Amino acid sequence: MYLARITVTLRPSILDPKGKAAGEALHQLGYADIRSVRIGKHIELRLDVSDESEAHALADEACRKLLANEVMEDFTIHLERI
Predict the structure, then answer these.
(1) Which of 29, 60, 70, 71 has most Cβ atoms within 10 angstroms of its Cβ?
(2) Which domains does the chain have, with CATH numbers?
(3) Contact 29, 49 (CB under 8 A)
(4) Which residues contact 29 (CB under 8 A, 6 or more apart)?
């Protein structure tokens, strides 16, 4: 069994209004050293498969079909055997 930790973020060329609003709020709270904020999603999948390549393929397929919008978002997959 594997745990897939997936991070989905907007592509750098896509405006991030939530990140911009959070960045401005942090500056108003006195966090002047924070230069920018980008907000994304963290997803965890438990995969009942026998090997790492199968786990990666399954997580990748789930991202491409449902979990990430490939037009606007990038995703990374980190696997851990559990």
Answers:
(1) 60
(2) 2-81 (3.30.1280.10)
(3) no
(4) none
